[in-house]
TrEMBL record:
GO molecular function: electron transfer activity; FMN binding; menaquinone-dependent protoporphyrinogen oxidase activity; oxidoreductase activity, acting on NAD(P)H
Organism name: Clostridium aciditolerans
Top-level taxon in the UniProt lineage: Bacteria
Taxonomic classification: Bacteria, Bacillati, Bacillota, Clostridia, Eubacteriales
PANTHER family, per database record: PROTOPORPHYRINOGEN IX DEHYDROGENASE [MENAQUINONE] (PTHR38030), PROTOPORPHYRINOGEN IX DEHYDROGENASE [QUINONE] (PTHR38030:SF2)
Name of the molecule in the record: Flavodoxin domain-containing protein
GO biological process, one term: heme biosynthetic process
């Protein structure tokens, strides 16, 4: 079974997971900018990874817009983010990014990544600055919100190789 890992990574967390997954599976790996639908035809398993930005998976349109070409293949999408990844959050990400029909054949995984404000694009820095201002105005912050504010000055990295094991087992099944 031939596998391909495609990823889009702005801060490096997703890229690290993609590299580990490709290594574990003996898969080919490409940045999404190098991938195209014709390349997918040579693979039985297609794995896509992207970071979470306001609940959207960066670059996931590559998978959703090419869904007709993916029929009959094992399709896996993983997203990385700074949050713990509670079940309701993961369900929200899945429902925001994939239709009910797509969810029937796309297996979704959340892998905890991290947050590094300095590595964000200018646009994402602006958006995150607005979030920071909003959080600072709030009187009662949740522990997650407190952690997010702290992360602006102190990058967080929760990337661990053990986090890919469930995805790797599924890909090999």
């Amino acid at each position: 079974m031939r596998s391909i890992v495609i990823y889009k990574s702005q801060t490096g967390f997703t890229k690290k997971y993609a590299e580990w997954i490709a290594e574990e599976l003996g898969a080919d790996i490409f940045h999404v900018s190098e991938a195209n639908v014709d390349k997918l035809q040579n693979y039985d398993t297609v794995i896509y990874g992207g970071g979470l930005y306001a609940g959207g998976i960066s670059g996931a349109k590559f998978i959703t817009e090419n869904s007709d070409s993916l029929k009959g293949k094992k399709v896996i999408v993983f997203a990385t983010g700074a949050s713990v990844g509670r079940a309701e959050e993961i369900d929200g990400v899945r429902n925001k990014n994939f239709t009910a029909e797509q969810q029937k054949y796309i297996k979704f995984f959340y892998l905890r990544g991290g947050f590094n404000y300095k590595k964000l694009s200018t646009l994402n820095k602006i958006l995150m600055t607005f979030l920071k201002w909003k959080l600072k105005k709030k009187k009662d912050l949740t522990p997650d919100e407190q952690g997010m504010l702290a992360a602006y000055d102190h990058p967080m990295d929760f990337v661990e190789k053990k986090n890919i094991q469930e995805l790797v087992v599924y890909a090999n099944s």
